[in-house]
């Protein structure tokens, strides 16, 4: 299951899983129609130039607002109805906004924490509730390099704090559930080219150059650059890892 999977990094994670042989997937997103379209598109793409037929896949799109616990519980109930179990859950739904601390309206700060922090918590809690009776599973919370460094020049204090919270949340939950077979790890991307960042960059052409100059590898990441890390963390390949973080940031955090 992937939250925020209709587009952006979440959608790229869906593609990475299917490329790695996954045939059963629930794509959750605030935008239900886009989630359903993403599911159809994923199946169509997977069948291109392959021996596989659409009937080989069970990929569904569901509407879900991760900031509402009730909505998350409903989506998990629908997923369990469709598949009978849930082995891997990726919490990718998240938003970013750039306001200086003095200018940031409180209702928007609250909404950001509701999605980025509480949404990740509701998703992880519901995942573990379903995974523990079946013997375990893997949860990946998508944080950010912003959990480790302060981005410049754009101001985004609540976002940075939300991503640090997600990272520490993953470690805390990992300890709570370690003996129950549920692993919880964090993926921390650097600057990636997705709709989220393209929206920011559309207002500021110089910003991309600044971000690239601050990244040792001299470029922004393509969403596909995260494919190996997300498949590794979500699968048994990482079975002795829990409470860990993988940074994929072109070296941003090392300088
Ligand atoms: N793009 C980057 O450079 C970057 C870097 C580090 C971390 N991240 C993190 O990666 C995650 C995905 O970012 P992205 O760049 O793909 O963003 P995006 O805006 O391209 O996609 C986010 C998806 O989440 C969905 N979403 C938003 N609010 C939701 C809600 N309340 N409930 C369910 N779905 C909701 C959106 O509809 C969208 O499909 C976020 O958590 C973000 O903080 C992104």
UniProtKB/TrEMBL annotation:
Keywords associated with the record: NADP, Oxidoreductase
Gene Ontology molecular functions: D-arabinitol 2-dehydrogenase activity; oxidoreductase activity, acting on NAD(P)H, oxygen as acceptor
BP-aspect Gene Ontology terms: carbohydrate metabolic process
Pathway: Carbohydrate metabolism; D-arabinitol metabolism
EC number: 1.1.1.250
SUPFAM superfamilies: NAD(P)-binding Rossmann-fold domains (SSF51735)
Matches recorded under InterPro entries: NAD(P)-bd_dom_sf, Sc_DH/Rdtase_CS, SDR_fam
Enzyme class: oxidoreductase
Family that this chain belongs to: Belongs to the short-chain dehydrogenases/reductases (SDR) family.
Protein name: D-arabinitol 2-dehydrogenase [ribulose-forming]
Record organism: Hericium alpestre
Upper lineage: Eukaryota, Fungi, Dikarya, Basidiomycota, Agaricomycotina
């Amino acid at each position: 299951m992937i939250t925020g999977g209709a587009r952006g990094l979440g959608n790229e994670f869906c593609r990475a899983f299917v490329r790695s042989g996954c045939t059963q997937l629930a794509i959750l997103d605030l935008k239900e129609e886009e989630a359903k379209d993403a599911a159809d598109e994923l199946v169509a793409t997977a069948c291109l130039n392959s021996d596989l037929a659409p009937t080989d896949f069970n990929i569904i799109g569901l509407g879900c607002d991760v900031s509402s616990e009730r909505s998350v519980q409903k989506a998990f109930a629908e997923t369990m109805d469709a598949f009978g179990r849930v082995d891997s859950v990726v919490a990718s739904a998240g938003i970013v906004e750039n306001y200086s601390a003095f200018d940031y309206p409180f209702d928007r700060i609250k909404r950001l924490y509701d999605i980025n922090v509480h949404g990740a918590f509701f998703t992880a809690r519901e995942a573990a509730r379903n995974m523990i009776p079946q013997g375990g599973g893997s949860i990946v919370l998508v944080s950010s390099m912003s959990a480790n460094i302060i981005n410049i020049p754009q101001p985004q204090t609540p976002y940075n704090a939300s991503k640090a919270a997600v990272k520490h949340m993953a470690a805390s939950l990992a300890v709570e559930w370690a003996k129950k077979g549920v692993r919880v790890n964090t993926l921390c991307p650097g600057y990636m080219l997705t709709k989220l960042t393209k929206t920011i960059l559309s207002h500021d052409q110089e910003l991309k150059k600044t971000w690239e100059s601050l990244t040792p590898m001299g470029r922004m990441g393509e969403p596909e650059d995260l494919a190996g890390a997300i498949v590794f963390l979500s699968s048994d390949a990482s079975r002795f890892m829990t409470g860990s973080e993988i940074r994929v940031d072109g070296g941003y955090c090392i300088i």
